[in-house]
Write a structure and sequence with these properties.
The chain is an alpha+beta fold and 203 residues long. The protein has a domain of 137 residues. Helix content is 73%, strand content 13%. The protein has three helices and two strands; from the N terminus they run ααββα. It has a two-stranded antiparallel ribbon. Helix 1 packs antiparallel against helix 3.
Length: 203
């Protein structure tokens, strides 16, 4: 840390810095609250997708076990693209899920089980759930990183910079006050000596 200059210019700088830090602090606190709210929303959405997937799997298991036919669904359906857009949460750019795109190979309607159409649909839904969860996980990571940085800045301003400025202002004011007092004392001494000299001249 640079040595503190005990001057009026330095006092002004410290006061300006203090005002700036005090002005930024509420903004950072607000950002922190927004990030926490958004992280909770993302966590809720993530859990919701897991529950939707589990519900879908339970529903599928109820009817798919009734059929003995075995079909390699992985050979019929493949995920080709996950479409996202860029969102902005409290100044943080995050990916936002739009849709999952699939390539579905043609299959023989006569030589495949009756449930194959529903099976293809389910595979797409499950893959879409997984893709969306991955995007939500990325959102959470980005928000957590920004929240950590924001908390560090809040602590820096609140626990370090603002107290430092206040202490520096206190030291400078004491020093300048002492200098003013010394100047007044020196002025009085000089005046007294001048008066003594003048008196001695007239005697």
């Amino acid at each position: 840390m640079a040595k503190l200059k005990l001057t009026k210019t330095s006092l002004k700088k410290q006061r300006d810095d203090l005002k700036r830090f005090q002005r930024f602090l509420p903004t950072l606190e607000l950002k922190k609250e927004q990030l926490i709210v958004e992280m909770r929303r993302v966590e809720f959405e993530y859990d919701k997708k897991i529950n939707e997937e589990l519900s879908l799997r339970d529903d599928v298991n109820k009817w798919v076990e009734l059929f003995a036919e075995s079909v390699e669904m992985d050979n019929l359906v493949s995920l080709t693209d996950v479409v996202t857009k860029q969102g902005n949460i409290a100044g943080v750019y995050i990916p936002v899920f739009i849709e999952a795109k699939f390539d579905v190979k043609e299959y023989d309607l006569l030589n495949t089980p009756l449930w194959i159409d529903r099976g293809v649909e389910v595979v797409q839904q499950l893959a879409a759930f997984q893709a969306e969860r991955e995007i939500l996980s990325k959102q959470k990571d980005l928000l957590q990183h920004e929240l950590r940085l924001t908390i560090q800045r809040i602590n820096l301003f609140d626990k370090v910079k603002i107290p430092e400025c206040r202490e520096s202002i206190r030291k400078i004011r004491i020093y300048l006050g002492d200098q003013d007092a010394n100047a007044v004392a020196r002025g009085k001494i000089a005046k007294t000596k001048l008066e003594d000299v003048q008196i001695g001249t007239y005697v």
